[in-house]
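Same chain as my last thread, 331 residues:
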Amino acid sequence: MKILIMAGGYATRLWPITKDNPKALLPVGNRVILDYILEKVEELGLETYISTNRFFEAHFRPYAEERGVELIVEDTLHEEEKLGTIGAMKKAVDELGLDDYLVIAGDNLFSFSLEDFLRAYDGRTLIAVYDVGDLNLAKRYGVVVLEGDRVISFEEKPAQPRSTLISTGVYVFPKAVMERIDEYLSNGNRDSPGYFLQWLLERGEPIKAYRFSEYWYDIGSADSYLEALKTLLRESHVEEIQISPYAKIIPPVVIKRGAKILGRSIIGPYAYIGENCVIENSDVSDSIIFRNTVIKNSTIWRSIIDERCEIRNLELRKSLVGGHAKIQRGE
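reply #2:
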C-alpha cells in the first residue's frame, strides 16, 4: 500500500489568503495542517507521497525534504488547468504503479488513528464517514447511507440529503479500483472523489464505511479554519517577543518570533500572531494574523488577516483580509 496526500488544489474559497500560500501549509496553532496529517501517517511506516502543482511546488519542496516524503508535481499553474483529485490520482498511478492507495485530502483535520482506519480495511474500498448532525450542512458534502458498515447509497452534494453522514477526505482504494480510474475519467468529474465513489457504487463496487466521532474539519472556509484552531490549539506557544507590561495574554495563543505586543493590547484566547507582527493598543481573539502585519487601536475577532497588512482604528469581525492591505478609519 502507498499513501497519497492530495494537495494540488488552489483553494479558491479561501482566497486571498491562499492565493500565494498552499492551504495544506497554513498554520493551525504552532503547526501547519500537513503536520497533523503526517503525524498520523508516520505511524504506518508506508511510502508516502504529496501530490501538488507546479505553482506551489517551491513551497512544498523544502517541507517534503525535511519530512522525508516525496512530491508528485502536476504541471499546472492555474485553477482552470488543474488535474483535479481523480486526475492527480491517475498521475500518481502512472508514476508509481498500481497498488492499494490510502488517499488523504491535504486540507483535512481528523481525530481518528489511521492505524485503526486501516484495521477496518478488508479489500473493499474504505471511506471515513462523519455525522455532521445537520441536513443543510450535509448538502455541501458527499452524503452516505449505510446498512451496517456497508455503503448502500452515496450522493455528492444532494439537494435533499437522505442522512447527515458524510464522506470525509480519507479513503482506501484497492488496486482493482485504481485500475478503473481511466474508465471513469473518460466521462467523469475529474475533481471530486465523491463522484468517483458514486460511480463505483452504481457499477456494483462494494464500499465499506469507517465511522468516527470527536472532530473533523475540512479547511475550506474561514469559519472551518478558525474552528479548527479553537479545537487544536490546546496550549500556548510564545517565542521571543517584545511585550508591554500593560499588555495581557489570555491562553491559549501562538505568538511567533519578533512580534511586538505594545500598549494595552489583549491577545487571546485562540489567537495566532505571526512573525514580526506589531499589535498596539488592540484586542485580538479567535483570529489568525500572518507575519509582518501591523494592527493599531483596533479590535479583531474571528478574522484572518494575511501578511504585511496595516489595520488602524477599526473593529473587524468575521473578516478575511488579503495580503498588503491597508485599512484604517480616520484618526
